[in-house]
Amino acid sequence: MADLLWLEPVGGAAGDMFLAAALHLGVPRDELTRHLGALGVPGWRLEVKDAEASGIHGLHLDVEVEDIAVAQTKLRELARSLGIEDRVTIDTAL
Asked: What is the pLDDT along the chain (94 residues), one digit of tens a residue?
């Protein structure tokens, strides 16, 4: 029987927090990186470090991007190809 994690993020879920939680639960970092790389967005890397807030331990994850304009263009193309461009907001103020 495969392990199963059921999520119902009623208010949504921040991508960086979700990825950090997945790593903390045991998803292998190299496997996660490989799957994210299949999205075709160039020039990024994951920065992961231990974190603690109010006595709660976990991981903090940042997605570091070399060229934000290129990444934004690729993300728009990906959203368009998935037919979800109307539901995706890309912050151009970064």
From this structure: 577 778 888 887 888 889 999 999 999 999 999 999 998 888 899 999 999 999 999 999 999 989 888 888 888 898 999 999 888 887 766 5
**Joined tokens for residue 35:** 């799957």
Contact 23, 29 (CB under 8 A): yes
- Amino acid letter at 52? E
Continuous segment of H or E residues that includes residue 44: strand 44-53
Q: What contacts 15, CB < 8 A, 6 or more positions away?
A: 63
Query: Structure tokens of 55?
Result: 């006595």
